[in-house]
Amino acid sequence: MKKTLYLILLLVLCICVSSSCSRGDDEPSADILSLDSLIDRRDEFDRKKILRVSDLRHRLSSAGTPDERFTLNAQLYDEYLTYNSDSAMKYIDANLDIARRSGNIERLNSSLIKKSYLQAAIGLLREAESLLDTVDRSKLTREQLVEYYGQKIYLYSHMGNYTGGETNEYYAKERSYKDSIMTVISPDHPEYLWYRAWDVIGTDRNDPDLNETMRRRLEHSSKDTRRDAMDAYVLARLYQQAGDEANSRKYMVLSAMIDVKIANAEIASLDDLAKIMFANGEGDIDRAYRYINFSFGKAISYPNRGRAFGIMQTLDSVSKAYQERNHRQQLRTNLFLTLVCLLSAVLAMTIAIIIKQNRRLMRQGRNLDSANKQLNRNLRELSDAQAQLAEANTKLKELNADITRKNDELTEANYVKEEYIGYVFTICSNYIRKLEEFRKSIHVKAKTHKYREIEDETAGVDNMKDELREFYRSFDTVFLHIYPDFVNDFNSLLQDDKRIVPKEGELLNTELRIYALVRLGITDSVKIADFLHCSAQTVYNNRFKVRNKAIIDKKDFAEAVRTLGKFEKPL
To answer: Per-residue pLDDT for 556 more than 80?
Structure first.
């Protein structure tokens, strides 16, 4: 029964983990979250757009001259161009009428090209081609020629997409006009980088300088105009062609963000981004579904039949993936519920068996209880006797341990005294011998009038430093002879990363030497400072610093040090 229960629990856990993993998409990046936030504010951007248009329409209603109306119509056309095609068509037709009435060929050609662009944008490709054929190319200015070739590229690109296939006659024409526009457009033209980029896209050429130039221009732009959105989009396509997926996605998101902020209904970037997010049904399907629906709504409101048709194909793929994912999740949920029901039944059976066993154990327990009470009475009597005996033994052991400890302390103290008395006598003897040699040397030099040498010899401090080092080394040697494990035991009181290790060639350093004196019973910082030839403040600071590294209470640190170091009894 237990094995069956464990098996079911393990199976349920596996299902839960699998379900959690299937739902756990990667956390969206900051720019994706910013894009989502902008989409949530789309009504706000639409209102700003409407306010700008309302202001222009009010100014148009009071315009007195054809020139003023032509200028305001052009501005309204630009505002509506990516927002509402019907309104944009109304104002470009008005400008065509003004241009024909005035006989201004330049304005007429410019308006014809703009209307052709608008017709191509809403899917009237044949009408756009016919209208563009009425333009007399020989009468175009250099700026208009760039606009004319650009419209040809836009038109044949759309016609190629409608025709389908990797190559067709319209793509060939598009390629031809890309070559043509690059012969007439100047590097200082606002759309030079745009057309230069499209001249590279779709070929096996690569232009890193172009990528860097466009990236710098975007960095210094306001990022709130249609031109900025177009630059970010084409830069994303360039990075895509170069195989740089990270930068391609980054600038596609930037283009979509700008398009949303300017209320652009011709939002190709969000359509492409939805395809990236979808990632063949394995990516962020929810976000892809939201983006493609947003793009589809914009295409319908524009209206752009061609874009709406293309988006519907992507929308259909995303919807199918969305439904398949929901179906898989439903199957997992049903399986999980079935396992939970099975587990509940097993648990119910287990609980019933446990209750039955508990009742039997309770009956047996009552029978044992009376026997245990009698046994407990006997045990208490025995326990009282044992407790009295144990108390007497404990007191005896404590007394013996105290005697042993006092003997050890006395033995250690006597041994330390003997060692250091011999050490002191040796040092004193050495210093008496060295003073006698020093006296003789000074006497000889004085008799021979070598006063400069006497002055040099008495003024030098190196000898004193050497003597002091020799003194410390002798002290360290004697101390570690008595307490060979002192350094390791001392470090065991410190944090692992704060342990004190003498440098190569040293037995003890200043910090260890201070606490070696504490181990010998010298706890006064002034006496320690006199012994080590330093200030009492230096001793205090070192003791304070070491206590801060301790793993025990600072108040108990000095007492703990006094018990360190394994004392080796002399043989």
So the answer is: yes
